[in-house]
Specification:
Rossmann fold; alpha/beta; about 40% helix; binds NADP nicotinamide-adenine-dinucleotide phosphate; about 325 residues; 10 helices; 7-stranded parallel β-sheet; two-stranded parallel ribbon
Length: about 325
């Protein structure tokens, strides 16, 4: 099958492109610079286009006539500054709104059948009720001001993709990425913070995190490219867990000292309201639908297995 991937050089694209090539697909890998990490692989062509340039995207898609178009464009490469969350996410929000519109139009005009787009399950679910949410549960109706535009952009992307006329639309709500090439990779920024005891548990550490190894995020994406009904799927592991459980475990596995504890009011001063919410109030997500309907089998059903490989840098094993 011919597959067009916008955002092919990011954390997920670097796993996904070679995986699709190994599964026999012909891949066109788009980024602004056109040099896909896996460009040397057979069955992979690279193309340069800015996702915010409607004509350039239309030309790139039309030239390859893909059956499936994939949206993996974000702009999260810099440091995540929780105090300046809006600024950090501004470009990503545009890629999730204008960028999505551009890709949908290009997919439709280029004769594609399906579009698969990156969404997020890490923290947007409503902070009420049970600890683990399904795709049917509402997103946060009243997010803190700093993240409102980001939640709005996520909603926009999901509606646009799943409502795209003439296309089978799938939005994948990934959990928090970890593994090679992510900020929670063997030498990622977050991993270094944990090693240096600079990633504290705030308040009671009761925020539930749903994580996903980048290998499993890519294999779920390949499954959604190849099949599955249109709609929204959580792509997370089997083991949603509170920060007070996974963070000390990861510190131990890395050979670091246990994380420090900060009262919520101190956390608010250093990481803002959303930072405290991430640590104390967010909900996790269920992967039951993706496992059932995408016929997806995880290599790392729990972060308990996946984290062990971060310590030895062995998560590049295939
Ligand atoms: N669910 C999650 O936890 C999640 C999701 C996403 C990212 N992250 C984290 O955020 C960090 C950075 O993510 P990342 O490595 O994927 O890098 P990124 O800088 O967010 O870029 C992602 C992809 O989008 C492309 N892109 C960005 N702006 C574009 C534009 N205007 N037009 C076309 N393509 C564009 C990038 O290529 P070019 O820049 O070359 O154009 C790249 O291929 C990593 O630590 C990652 O783990 C986490």
């Amino acid at each position: 099958m011919r597959v067009f991937i916008a955002g092919a050089t990011g954390a997920i694209g670097r796993e996904l492109v070679p995986l699709l090539a190994r599964r026999g697909h012909e891949v066109t890998a788009m980024s602004r610079h056109g040099a896909a990490a896996a460009a040397a692989a057979d069955r992979v062509d690279s193309v340069a286009a800015d996702g915010l340039d409607r004509e350039a995207v239309a030309r790139a898609v039309a030239a390859t006539e893909p059956e499936v178009v994939v949206h993996q464009m974000t702009a999260l490469g810099g440091d995540l500054d929780l105090r300046r969350f809006e600024r950090t996410f501004a470009r990503t929000n545009r890629l999730r709104t204008e960028g999505t519109d551009n890709l949908i139009a290009a997919a439709r005009d280029g004769g594609a059948r399906r579009i698969v787009a990156q969404s997020f399950a890490g923290w947007p679910y409503a902070r009420e009720g049970g600890p683990v949410k399904t795709e049917e549960d509402p997103l946060d109706p009243d997010p803190p001001r700093a993240v409102r535009a980001t939640v709005d952009a996520i909603r926009y992307l999901e509606r646009a993709v799943t409502g795209a006329e003439g296309l089978e639309g799938i939005a994948l709500r990934y959990g928090g990425f970890y593994g090679s090439g992510t900020s929670l990779g063997p030498s990622g920024e977050q991993t270094e913070l944990i090693r240096g005891r600079r990633f504290p548990i705030v308040g009671d550490g009761g925020g539930i995190w749903s994580l996903i190894h980048i290998h499993d995020a890519a294999s779920a994406t390949a499954a959604a490219i190849e099949g599955g009904d249109p709609g929204i799927y959580n792509v997370v592991d089997d083991d949603p867990a509170p920060v007070r459980e996974w963070l000390p475990y990861l510190a131990r596995v890395l050979g670091a000292k246990p994380p420090r504890h900060l009262p919520a009011w101190v956390g608010r001063l250093t990481a803002g309201e959303h930072g405290v919410i991430l640590m104390t109030a967010i909900r996790g997500a269920s992967n039951a639908k993706a496992k059932r309907e995408l016929d997806w089998v995880l290599r790392y059903p729990s972060w308990r297995q996946g984290f062990k490989e971060l310590a030895i840098g062995a998560d590049r094993r295939r």
